[in-house]
Design the sequence.
């Protein structure tokens, strides 16, 4: 096809105003078989054709040999008053250019084809009264006709052909401007309304297929003066959202034409996420990706992104374009959202940020990168380690028993690691939550149980082993085998995630995978296996030395600043701090680990109850010499110690602690052998010191008696198992811890000397 020449020449022919089929094109074979509307004739046998069924409406110039009229309408009037012998003369009269026509648009803003001639044939002309319906693709008679015979002869007594109406409507949609006009009321009354009304009459008829092909992908649906006309797929009759310029709700004035508009593709339901994604690409199409968006377009683009996210748009299916800091549209993976506003801008050179009007949460959902994660990955501030799954934690917590078992399990872990002391703290404070590694960790800045093991540093491998719940006797850690308990797995009876600082590293473990972002490989493998995202356990390791990370995310490390440790100092911790944020009611309702909610009040009761068993538990351990509890109240600058139990031995007997635990030969002797006078004495002497302080606390509330009694019995049996090797040489012997006086706000000290005789041949029997 050749381009249309500059000069337009009126040609009398049967093509103008008719729908045609295109064929025989060599330069544009993609148009062969397409259907279009002939809207004008140029030069010598050249026709301007509107081509249907292409992504963008296209006007091309074609020769007659490439055109074939579809369903030609009879040119002669239905009731021709002339006789059959005179019909050829009438046919020639209709095709000759002799009628005077308007050379300029009579109304400003009305669609008008350029270079209109002064005369035209009746076949290519309509009365001036049809100016709003055919001004773009037919000539308008410059004058009035009152003869019924002439009106019938030229076909002017009938409405314009649907092809003319479609061409007029398409041109109005492509050229409308609220600044130029015409006025909305005039446009609806004289142009759009009458065209809709005539086209609606042929809905369902064979000729409507041509109408739908011509209009369904063009801007032909009126939406109001702000947006003008949009394609049918971008308009809905039922949507309550305030939409952008590429999506609109049909105004009430179009209700009478609902049948036609729905047939053309106007939606009767709300828009989907895919519709908003298409609107997003329209911004790129119209404004490009090299120049900033105008302010109005920028606001509409951001509004469209918010609506797209609310309707469930996923950037994984198709790229989403976001405005950058300069307002230029870029693919979301190329942009970074600033979720660390407290950080200095230094060191962020070369980073392309999302526009400030796009919220960080929205940018993250639509595929932009997190500045926090970008800095962590770029500076190699993060690594991963294996973490137990939610299923493994559920199995470990099955039949957990009394809530004090958490403390006993953690004490046993500390004992296996060779700790000399263990300090429990009920931290009731609410810590700052702005500068966190991940926004999802905000809800874990509240009350927590903190456990300090001085002088004990854990490796990543040891932490992984301590998370395993196994009763195998071959399991050893630092040459020792835990005898009871669930090790670190019991910590998740209290909360959803755990944080641990040891030496120069911080570990975060999320068994449910709901609060820490997974690694790329894990997520990819997960989706490949299941076809849909599921939660995998996530464990992450972060360095504390030389201190760059704690200074960038101070709020994340603030809760660990206790027991004399300062994360901002850049120095490693000489020991291990385990922090277990307490599970809230909301977290418990959807937890994959445990449905038990924990409050600071409940933890206070557990620590208070532990005091009555602290001496018994301490004596049954091998390396721990001191156990303490404390509470850090919200309005205090330091914690208040509520219990301190210490155990000491004479220096020359220190190596014998635990000897009875490991030497079970005494179990083979009966009770009478303990009184054998032929044995000599060997005494183990312990000094136990207990200091406690009671804090006033709100009532803990009523509890189910039956369940609590059963849990209490299990705990008592377990305590007996811890201490049996010291205090039960036969089934008839038992040990009862001393009873301590109660004094609210006061202090009580009990000094206890215990001497337990181990039977040795030649001694004088039992002493104590």
Sequence:
């Amino acid at each position: 096809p050749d381009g249309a020449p500059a000069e337009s020449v009126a040609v009398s022919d049967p093509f103008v105003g008719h729908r045609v089929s295109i064929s025989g094109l060599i330069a544009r074979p993609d148009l062969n078989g397409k259907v279009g509307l002939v809207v004008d004739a140029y030069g010598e046998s050249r026709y301007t054709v509107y081509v249907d069924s292409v992504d963008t409406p296209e006007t091309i110039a074609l020769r007659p040999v490439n055109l074939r009229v579809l369903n030609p309408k009879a040119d002669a009037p239905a009731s021709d008053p002339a006789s059959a012998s005179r019909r050829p003369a009438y046919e020639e009269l209709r095709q000759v250019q002799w009628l005077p026509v308007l050379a300029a648009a009579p109304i400003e803003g009305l669609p008008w084809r350029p270079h209109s001639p002064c005369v035209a044939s009746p076949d290519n002309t309509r009365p001036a009264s049809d100016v709003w319906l055919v001004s773009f693709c037919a000539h308008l008679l410059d004058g009035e006709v009152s003869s019924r015979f002439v009106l019938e002869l030229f076909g002017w007594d009938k409405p314009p052909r649907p092809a003319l109406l479609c061409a007029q409507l398409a041109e109005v949609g492509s050229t409308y401007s609220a600044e130029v006009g015409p006025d909305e009321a005039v446009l609806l009354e004289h142009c759009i309304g009458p065209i809709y009304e005539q086209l609606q009459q042929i809905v369902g008829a064979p000729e409507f297929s041509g109408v739908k092909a011509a209009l369904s992908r063009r801007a032909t649906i009126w939406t109001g003066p702000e947006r003008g006309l949009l394609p049918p797929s971008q308009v809905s009759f039922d949507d309550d959202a305030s939409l952008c310029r590429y999506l609109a709700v049909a105004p009430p004035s179009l209700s009478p034409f609902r049948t036609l508009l729905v047939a053309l593709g106007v939606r009767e339901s709300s828009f989907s996420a895919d519709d908003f994604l298409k609107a997003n690409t329209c911004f790129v199409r119209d404004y490009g990706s090299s120049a900033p968006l105008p302010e109005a377009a920028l606001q509409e683009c951001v509004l469209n992104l918010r609506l797209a996210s609310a309707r469930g748009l996923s950037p994984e299916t198709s790229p989403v374009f976001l405005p950058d800091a300069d307002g230029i549209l870029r693919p979301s993976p190329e942009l970074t959202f600033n979720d660390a506003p407290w950080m200095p801008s230094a060191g962020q050179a070369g980073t392309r940020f999302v526009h400030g009007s796009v919220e960080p949460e929205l940018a993250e959902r639509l595929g932009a990168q997190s500045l926090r994660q970008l800095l962590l990955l770029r500076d190699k501030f993060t690594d991963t380690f294996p973490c137990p799954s939610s299923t493994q934690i559920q199995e470990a917590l099955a039949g957990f028993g009394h809530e004090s078992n958490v403390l006993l399990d953690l004490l046993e872990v500390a004992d296996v690691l060779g700790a000399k002391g263990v300090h429990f703290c009920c931290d009731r404070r609410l810590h700052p939550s702005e500068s966190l590694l991940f926004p999802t960790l905000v809800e874990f800045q509240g009350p927590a149980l903190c456990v300090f093991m001085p002088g004990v540093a854990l490796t990543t491998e040891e932490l992984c082993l301590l998370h395993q719940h196994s009763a195998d006797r071959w399991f050893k850690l630092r040459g020792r085998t835990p005898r009871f308990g669930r090790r670190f797995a019991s910590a998740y009876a209290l909360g959803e995630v755990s944080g641990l600082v040891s030496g120069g590293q911080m570990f975060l473990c999320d068994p449910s995978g709901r609060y820490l972002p997974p690694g790329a490989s894990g997520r990819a493998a997960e989706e490949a296996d299941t076809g849909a995202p599921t939660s995998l356990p996530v464990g992450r390791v972060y360095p504390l030395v030389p201190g760059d990370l704690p200074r960038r995310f101070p709020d994340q490390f603030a809760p660990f600043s206790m027991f004399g440790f300062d994360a901002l100092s850049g120095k490693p911790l000489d020991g291990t701090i385990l922090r277990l944020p307490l599970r809230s009611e909301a977290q418990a309702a959807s937890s994959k680990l445990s449905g038990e909610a924990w409050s600071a009040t409940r933890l206070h009761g557990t620590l208070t109850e532990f005091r009555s068993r602290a001496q018994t538990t301490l004596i049954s351990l091998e390396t721990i010499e001191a156990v303490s509890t404390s509470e850090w109240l919200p309005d205090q600058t330091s914690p208040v110690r509520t219990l301190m139990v210490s155990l000491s031995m004479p220096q020359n007997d220190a190596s014998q602690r635990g000897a009875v635990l490991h030497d079970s030969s005494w179990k083979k002797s009966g009770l009478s052998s303990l009184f054998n006078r032929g044995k000599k004495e060997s005494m183990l002497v312990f000094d136990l010191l207990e200091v406690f302080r009671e804090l006033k606390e709100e009532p803990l509330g009523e509890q189910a008696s039956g369940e609590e009694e059963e849990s209490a019995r299990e705990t008592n049996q377990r305590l007996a198992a811890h201490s049996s090797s010291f205090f039960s040489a036969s089934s008839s012997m038992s040990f009862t811890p001393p009873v301590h006086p109660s004094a609210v706000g006061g202090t009580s000290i009990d000094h206890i000397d215990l001497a337990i005789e181990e039977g040795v041949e030649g001694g004088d029997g039992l002493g104590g």
Observations:
- The two ends are 116 Å apart (CA to CA).
- The first strand starts at residue 19 and ends at 22.
